[in-house]
Amino acid sequence: MSVRYDKLWILLIKNKMKKGELAKAAHLSSHTMTQLNNNRRLVSMSVMLRLCKVFHCDIGDVMEVVEDEVH
User: Fold this and answer.
1) 68 burial type by CB count under 10 A (0-12 exposed, 13-18 middle, 19+ buried)
2) 71 pLDDT exceeds 70?
3) Residues 6+ apart with CB under 8 A from 27
4) pLDDT tens, 38-52?
5) How far apart are CA 49 and CA 57, in angstroms?
6) Which of 3, 13, 17, 48 is the most buried (most CB within 10 A)?
7) Cα separations in angstroms, 19 against 10, 16, 22, 68
């Protein structure tokens, strides 16, 4: 299983926010932003909670867990 943050980027667009603004609002380091940009990289629960606080939403609104494809 892996994660995707596509929902986060959709929220960003809907809220007319730039990635730099998000990083500042959620107190995210450049390393954490890189992890989020590279889908399927896990971030800590505290990061997820800060993102939820910025958008006043639930964790499922910013990320999703997906099954890995079997070849």
Assistant:
1) exposed
2) no
3) 50
4) 887 899 999 999 999
5) 9
6) 48
7) 12, 10, 5, 27
Averaged over 13-33, what is the pLDDT?
96
- Tokens representing 37? 């940009």
CB 26 within 8 A of CB 50: yes
Q: How far apart are CA 48 and CA 60, in angstroms?
A: 10
pTM tops 0.90:
no
From residue 18, give the alpha-carbon distance in Å to each of 2, 27, 45, 71: 25, 14, 22, 36
What's the whole-number mean pLDDT along residues 18-34?
Answer: 96
Q: What is the DSSP letter of 20?
A: H
Cα-trace Rg, the chain: 12
Instruction: Evaluate if residue 54 carries a pLDDT over 70.
Output: yes
Structure tokens that stand for 23 in this block: 């990083």
- Which residue is it, tokens 């990061």? 47
